[in-house]
Structures are given as structure tokens and as C-alpha cells.
Amino acid sequence: MKAAPEAQLRLLDLQELDTALARLQRRRRTLPELADIERVESRLGEMRDAMVAAETEISDLEREQKKAEQDVDQVRQRAERDQKRLDSGQVSSARDLSNLQSEITSLQRRQSDLEEVVLEIMERREAADGRVAALRTERSAAERELAELGDRRTASEREIDEEAGATSIARTAVAKDVPADLLALYEKLRDQFDGVGAAALHRGQCQGCHLALNTVDLNRIRAAAADEVIRCEECRRVLVRTAESGL
Question: Do 42 and 107 belong to one domain?
Fold first, then answer.
């Protein structure tokens, strides 16, 4: 393949711009805000699960407390009825009086036990309410952080996109200076070799694979016509001769 030396040099300019574009794309994919957003979103998910569990526990405790309070009321009402019977003097039998007093005592113990149950449920409810309140506070803080991270990500992406847009315009202008066949070869090689299709020969070393050329290859390049397109024997990229090639 033949191409004017000036066109081959423009290939290095094109490669530099393509490398810059690839760097910008990589930077956009690896913005630190992206990892931070993923972390905060994961934490928010965990908080949502914890919130559902805590609110479910509160709902269960509400039902449990209501049932326990009903049990207390029932026992208290029965004890009050027995006490009224006892105080009315309607029970005259000594045996019946003893049984009634024993039942009242038993009901009072039962009421006390049930009231302890109610208090224990209320304490558990208070703890669950505290967890929900803490989770809501933490969730609000995480949502604010997520919004701030989203704004920072958007700003960073906008900056990168603007730079990439300007670089793409410059690339289009440079690509016009490269013959179609050489440009096609360059694009093919870029696809094959990690985005690098052309490299400078600098002081006897290929800047694509960073290997020094042997004497035979250097002599072959020295003897080649200025418009001949040279390929690196090691990496097969287009090897562009410059004033710093050491030929």
C-alpha cells in the first residue's frame, strides 16, 4: 500500500484522537459516582426491606396489644362483678364466700400477669417504632446523597460528552486527510488490536507493541520508499516513520 508521508503522519494524529475518545468512553463508564450510586441504591434497598420488616412487626404488635388489653378488661370486669357480689352480702354460705374470695384473688393475679404482658408488648412496640424512625431518618439522608450523586454524575457526563464531541469533530477533520484505503486498514487494525491501529517508529522501537526492531527490519525500512506503508513485523500495526525514528 502506498500513501504520502504526510498522510501517514496524519494517521498518528488520528490515532491520538481515537485514543483520547476511548479514554473518555472509559472514563464515562468508570465514573466514581457510578459506584457510589450503586452503593447507596443497595443500601436503600436494604433499608426498604428493614422498614417493611419493622412496620410488619409493629402491625403484629398492635394486634397482640389489642388482644392482651381485651383480656385484661375481661378479667377486670369479672373481678369487679365478683367483688360486687361479695360486697352486696348476697352470698351467705361460708363455702361460697371462700370460693368467691379465692376467685377474686386469682383474677387479680391473672389481671396483674396480663398487664405485665401488655407492658412488655408496649416496650417492644416502642423499640420497633424507634427502629422505623431511625430508618426513615437514614433513608432521607441516603435519598439526599443519591440525589447529589446523580447531579454530580450528570455534570461529569456532560463535561465528558462535550469533550468527546469536540474530539470527534477534530477526528472527522483529520480522517479526511487520510486516503480511504489506508483509513480502512487502520480501522480494521484498530478493531483487532485494542483500539491501536497505527504507531510511530521511535528510535528503532514500535510504539504499538513497544518492541525494538532488529537490524534486518530497520534496514528494510530504511530502504523502503517514503510513500510505502510499513507494518510492524511483531504486532502488524501500521508503523509510521517520523524524524525521531532513528533511521
Answer: yes
Residue 189 contacts by C-beta under 8 Å, 6 or more apart in sequence? 196, 197, 198, 236, 237, 238
Give residue-wise pLDDT tens across range 154-200.
Answer: 999 999 999 999 999 999 999 999 999 999 999 999 999 999 999 99
Grid cell in block for residue 32: 466514581
Amino acid code (one letter) for 106: S
- Is the same domain home to 142 and 124? yes
The residues with which 239 forms a beta bridge, in sequence order, are 199, 230
**Cell numbers for 168:** 470527534
Smallest CA-to-CA distance from 88 within 36, 80, 26 is with 80
Exposed / middle / buried, residue 172 (Cβ in 10 Å: 0-12, 13-18, 19+): exposed
In this structure, the answer to whether residues 137 and 98 fall within a common structural domain is yes
